[in-house]
Amino acid sequence: MLDALNWPGFADLTLAGLLFLCAAAFLAGAVDAIVGGGGLIQLPAMLLLMPGGEVIYSLATNKVAAIAGTSAAARTYAKRTPIDWRAALPMAVVALLGSLGGAMLANALPSHVLNIVVLVALVAVGFYTWRKPDLGSVDAPRFQRRAQLLVMLAGGAVIGFWDGIAGPGTGSFLVFLLVGLVGFAFLTASATAKVVNVATNIGALIFFIPAGKVLWGLGILMALSNIAGSVLGAVVAARRGSGFVRRVFLTVVVGLVISLGWKLAAGA
């Protein structure tokens, strides 16, 4: 049970480690489908258990699992929640390009600086959402159509870039952008964020796959687990509505703040 599997594409994980990562992927898929932030669970679990090797392999393999889950969640949401495809698809394309650029710079930028920026942003996002209990309860667009699309494109590019570099909080940032700035309800924002998040994962993999950074055996098993969790999370979110999504959003943001704060305090 504690012996390494020695299977190609599994980085010498033990069977117990593999089962743990699949469980983490399932939980991450469920959380990510509801409001984003599944990377808070899945990526740290991989970094904790991956024996040896470079962090870049965990980042790349995490994208394989994440894209499967976000695709499944996007499909489930599309059946149950209206999505403005004329705005969502252009935002997804720009986010894909941003993610590709972020992946290319993943090894070049100082991660501790990025973590500080993300931590400050998450604290601000969480406080703003907590102080406005009616935020995201209904769709209330704040811009004319053209201005709304520009805000979505700009935000998608920046968040996509961050997702390509590492990605903690990507889904939550997308949701907040669509709720806090654009004026979507939480449920609509979560559905749209899934479409964009699929694109950001594709963008990162466009770089990671040719670079040979993906552990395919591990990635495929975690992808199947992530899909199962994502379908469950999307169904629950669609049934429970925007109020439920808002509560999960605040919980995930608090978790992200604690996680990044601990990482910074430990000097990681």
Which terms summarize this structure?
globular, 268 residues, 10 helices, mainly alpha
Distance between the termini: 30 Å
- What is the count of β-strands? 0
- Stretches with pLDDT under 50, minimum 5 residues: none
Order of helices and strands: HHHHHHHHHH
**Silhouette:** globular
Rg = 17 Å
- Secondary structure category: mainly alpha
Helix content: over 70%
Overview of the structural elements:
- The longest helix has 26 residues, at 55-80.
- With 268 residues, the protein is mainly alpha-helical.
- The protein is 76% helix and 0% strand.
- It has helices spanning 15-35, 39-49, 55-80, 85-104, 111-131, 145-165, 170-182, 186-208, 216-240, 242-265.
- The model has no long low-confidence stretch (mean pLDDT 79).
- It starts with 14 loop residues before the first helix and ends with a helix.
- Helix 3 packs antiparallel against helix 8, helix 3 (55-80) packs parallel to helix 9 (216-240) and helix 4 (85-104) packs parallel to helix 8.
